[in-house]
Each structure stands twice: as structure tokens, then as C-alpha cells.
Amino acid sequence: MTKITDTEEDVKNLILAEMAKQEEVNFLIILGIVGAIVVAIGITLWYFLHPRSPWVKRREVKDRRKDRDEDEAKRKDERRQLALQRKLQELDYTCKYCNAPGLKGPKCEYCSHINFSLD
Asked: What's the number of CA atoms in the CB half-sphere (13 Å) around residue 22?
């Protein structure tokens, strides 16, 4: 066994100190990367889930428009059905051309004539 001199021991300590500094730097780099990822995830979650975020507001507007369009379609269909019933009652559910009873729509099932138009 050789005896380690002071200079060799100093060099060894310097090398260990440099390695410790490098480990600290590596740790700080990794910590910075992890922090950036956490911030990015936080911003993404806020954008997609927070009630006041633009994406949520845009989605709510689309949902309201879709609901409104569905309601308008239902109302239009109901108005059309009511108009059909009024016309059929005016004609007393009989065809103008062949006097067949049981008229169910604008077109007669027997003679295929169009009795009225809902347009």
C-alpha cells in the first residue's frame, strides 16, 4: 500500500467536489424540466377544464346552438303537423278528386292526386 500524499488527497477531494457540483447541476436541470412539465400540464388542464377558459365557453356555446337548433326543428315539425291537421279537417278527411274517405296526408292513397300543399 502506498501512502497518499497531501497533494493526491487534495486532488481527490477536488475531484469529489466537482462530482458533487455536477450532481447538483444535474439535479437542478432535472428539477427544472419536471417543473416545466408540471406547469405545462397545469396550463393545459386549466384551458380544457376551468369554467372560464375559452375552450369551455366555446363548447358551451356550441351545445346551446345545437340545443336551439333541435328545439327549432321540433317546433317546425309540430307547426307542420298542426297545419296538416287543419288542412285535413278543412277537407273533412276526404279526397277532392275521388271523394275517398280517410285522407291522411296531402296525397290521396287511392287516386294519387295531391289535394293541398303545406308550403
From this structure: 6
Residue 97 per-residue DSSP state: T
Q: Work out the average pLDDT over 38-65.
A: 86
Domains held by the chain: number: 1
108 within some domain? no
Query: Which residues, other chains included, contact 95 with Cβ-Cβ below 8 Å and sequence gap of 6+?
Result: 103, 108, 110, 111, 113, 115
Domain extent, residue 31, equals 6-81
94 beta partners? 101
Does 86 map to a domain?
A: no
Which residue matches cell numbers 345545437? 66
Quick: pLDDT tens for 19-44: 888 888 889 999 999 999 999 999 99
* pTM (predicted TM-score): 0.43
